[in-house]
């Protein structure tokens, strides 16, 4: 299962915000979209799932396993989301329903896409909570989002995204709202889950130090265009564009900070 984005252009209110972006995610690959705020990385991810905001138009090509998905009807896109492609958003507080238990929310994805009964979905929700290393999963599924920590809420969001075993996970800055210690745990979890399942990953971030922990390749975006792309290790050692060099300077300060002597190992 491969994802191929070709000459993607996104316009909002007569302004081009993504201009000619192209990249590929082969089966099992872990690719990052990285850039500063306003670079178009999140809009590119939203376009893949047909979740662009009202007023936005997208042109070009987005092919999933050889099938053109840009411009698919909402019903077909809804079937694709969850079944084939899962997404984790930046802030779990906005992704989770505050008046439903987390178990019901994890189970809802299973009920919709796997078409299993409510009781079976709730039982499976406990298994999914355990899979993302939530403590006491049988108890935690009966809680509401506000009763969990930020890191726990993000793990619930990951469980929801992966419940139906998608072949591609899109993670849009999933650790930005978390403190450094919690962030490391969530990144480690994501890396392990993706590798163990052999799924593909598109990871969106503004931080190359974070990206280096989960992805092997990166697409650097600047003002809606691709500045450069390649292996993360090559971008770290021999960046060719000014924006990548700036990202490397920031990443180096993080990777070798005295409070983080072990780097990303």
Short synopsis of the structure:
InterPro entries: AAA+_ATPase, ABC_Ni/Peptide_Import, ABC_transporter-like_ATP-bd, ABC_transporter-like_CS, P-loop_NTPase. It contains eleven helices and ten strands.
Overview of the structural elements:
- The protein is of the alpha/beta class.
- The protein has two domains: 1-84 and 179-265, P-loop containing nucleotide triphosphate hydrolases (Rossmann fold, 3-Layer(aba) Sandwich); 93-165, no CATH class.
- It contains eleven helices and ten strands.
- The chain has helices at 41-48, 74-83, 92-95, 102-113, 118-131, 137-140, 150-162, 180-197, 208-211, 232-237, 242-255, and strands at residues 3-12, 15-25, 30-34, 56-64, 67-68, 85-88, 168-172, 200-205, 217-222, 225-231.
- Strands 6-7-8-3-9-10 form a six-stranded mixed β-sheet. A four-stranded antiparallel β-sheet has the order 2-1-4-5, with helices on one face.
- Helix 8 links the parallel strand 7 and strand 8.
- The radius of gyration is 18 Å and the shape is globular.
